[in-house]
Amino acid sequence: MKIQIKTVLIQTAIAGRNGGLLRAAMRRAHLVASAYSLAAMVAMFVVIGDTTALTVSVSSPTNGQAFVTSNITVRGTANDFILVSVVNAIDEKLQYGYSSPFAFDITLYSGVNPIFAQANGLGGQSQVRVDVTYTPVIISSPKLTGTTFTLSVPTAVGFNYVLEFKNSLSDINWTGVQTNRGSGGMIGLTNNGAIGSSRIYRVRVQ
Q: 104 and 166 share a domain?
């Protein structure tokens, strides 16, 4: 599968070997990337001056990191570059900038999200991939048997899942009844002694 990314206008300012500032004219760069490899990304630049090898790295998130929220910030650094870009291969939304360190806010989707960071410059290009997992809290199988209320939620390792309730929406505070540690799979949460005409439940992740 190919990702088609719309044409963007790029204006660059490049310091030459002689210390003078050379400005490349604005050029259209038609960016095409593979869903699993941004190595196919091509940008048309005026090649002037240094050809130092590019490097790019992502400091956050780390490869294999788990999340329970859908919005995260990708942070990292690059050297000797003209353009640095970040994309989540799931939604194919490219973000780019011209400074280092860089920080881009991206959206995660349920499951594994392949995130690519790439630097393009006179020395070629450098790319790194980081895979992260997003596990949204989705309550399923709620059931009341007598005075025992149970439900299930998908979980991520490294997080605690707390079942809480209150008797009315107007109540200020929630009452915690059970905490289970995430296993990376489905877990059950239980409230024994559920009495009264109604209760409102939620699962809080910490």
A: no
Range of the domain at 152: 140-205
- pTM for the model stands at 0.71
d(CA 62, CA 33): 23
pLDDT in tens, 50-84: 556 788 999 999 999 999 999 999 999 998 778 88
Cα–Cα distance measured from residue 46 to residue 12, given in angstroms and rounded to the nearest whole number: 9
HSE, CB side, 13 Å, CA atoms: give it for residue 97.
15
Q: How many CB atoms lie within 10 A of CB 152?
A: 16
Q: What are phi and psi of 75, to 5 degrees?
A: -120, 145
82 and 22 together in one domain: yes
User: Is residue 42 a contact partner of residue 32, using CB atoms and an 8 Å limit?
Assistant: yes
How far is Cα 87 from Cα 75, in angstroms, rounded to an integer?
12
